[in-house]
Write a structure and sequence with these properties.
By secondary structure, this protein is of the alpha/beta class. Helix content is about 40%, strand content about 20%. It is built from eleven helices and eleven strands. It is globular. Bound molecules: magnesium ion (3 copies).
């Protein structure tokens, strides 16, 4: 029986690449594992898989009776709905401690670094397993994505070190240029429906019984959203209502200006205002220096809700 390795719902590059890199490592160590995913891949991830010649992991959303490793998440709100009927063998993650419970002891590799693939790189080193060239290139891209090419406040020295070492293995000299190429692809927001844009990198959080959904779009030039705010709000309203959410937030992050325009639809806007000590105008506010949902948004919302 194979063991599945997968990342969070609405998978990003770290979740998809992490399922592949961790599965490769586990298989080298003698386990039989299969990388899988809980949802469709985004354009950035498609670019990375194509560039390094990898297939999409298996699409699988139900895991009752299966043995699993989780990568890049440990929240029930980002898990398959039947996760409580699966056996969690281990977790590799770089987020806050989640609410999942297990029946038996498990392997945990959790560190406050910028990307799960940084931890997987450290696991390869720990076990003395060589990383193949193309896999190294993919892992490097995942780290550049999660750390916004080292600009995110979540980025640590360990992430930059991992990127440099992976770039060497992948024989990629100008990794920052590849990072920019990736973010240019990520900035392509004109071909998607507004609903797909809000959901492209979307996470639900349970904050004391309140369901809060937070999406993020990272682009190289924020002006691309100038004429679509109204439609984005309409899509957010739809998502808020159908999911019975208390609030839906959308972070439009400008990676060059290094800040985010926050769009808010909430049953109580004042909570969001006091969380960030701001006044919303037309349900929006510019948050300078804010680039990380994990570090600069979620903890402040949790304190308030
Ligand atoms: Mg992720
Ligand atoms: Mg990650
Ligand atoms: Mg991210």
């Amino acid at each position: 029986m194979s063991t599945y390795i997968f990342g969070h719902t609405t998978p990003d590059s770290d979740s998809i690449v992490g399922s592949i890199s961790l599965s490769y490592l586990k298989n080298q160590l003698g386990e039989d594992t299969t990388p899988s995913r809980q949802g469709e891949i985004n354009p950035e991830t498609a670019f990375i898989l194509e560039k390094f010649g990898f297939e999409k992991p298996l699409l699988k959303t139900s895991y009752a009776g299966e043995r699993v490793y989780l990568i890049d998440f440990m929240e029930s709100s980002q898990s398959p709905s039947d996760i409580d009927q699966a056996t969690i063998l281990g977790i590799v993650d770089h987020h806050k401690l989640g609410d999942l419970k297990t029946d038996s002891p498990l392997e945990m590799w959790v560190r406050p670094v910028g990307c799960s693939n940084t931890i997987v790189k450290q696991m390869f080193d720990y076990f003395g397993v060589e990383i193949p060239k193309d896999l190294a290139g993919m892992m490097m891209c995942a780290i550049l994505s999660d750390t916004v090419i080292f600009k995110s406040p979540t980025c640590t020295k360990e992430d930059t070190k991992a990127v440099k070492e992976l770039a060497k293995i992948a024989q990629i000299e100008d990794y920052k240029a590849l990072g920019m190429e990736m973010f240019t692809i990520k900035s392509d927001v004109l071909n998607d429906t507004k609903r797909d844009l809000v959901l492209r990198d979307f996470k639900d959080f349970n904050m004391s019984g309140n369901k809060i959904g937070v999406g993020q779009l990272e682009v190289v030039d924020l002006s691309i959203f100038d004429n679509m705010k109204e439609e984005l709000f309409e899509a957010m309203k739809e998502i808020k209502e159908e999911g019975d959410r208390d609030s839906v937030l959308l972070l439009l992050t400008d990676i060059m200006q290094e800040g985010s325009q926050l769009l808010v639809l909430s049953d109580d806007n004042s909570k969001v205002e006091s969380a960030f000590d701001v006044k919303l105008v037309d349900n929006q506010v510019w948050l300078p220096k804010v680039m990380s949902r994990k570090k600069q948004i979620i903890p402040f919302l949790e304190r308030e809700f």
